[in-house]
Write a structure and sequence with these properties.
3-stranded parallel β-sheet; 4 helices; 3 strands
Length: about 90
Amino acid sequence: MTKVVLDTNVLVSVVRSPDGKPAQIMSLITGDEIEYCYSEEILAEYQNVLARDGVSISQEQQEIALNSIEKFGTKITRRVTDPTLKFSPP
């Protein structure tokens, strides 16, 4: 199964426009077609961004989104590092 992490902007788009293209990703997640992965750090970022004044998302919508992430997602509890990977600037 393909594992994904949603960019915060995609999550905001899903919450603001549940019938839009980004919402199709959520359908794949809730339909068990792809595995959504998140960590405490990612969840905290989602909470922070969804609560911003300019985002215009109600408290109820925020709670539904965050609860859905926890319900349908897979929480990653430790970092996996590969010492063989190296950053190569362009």
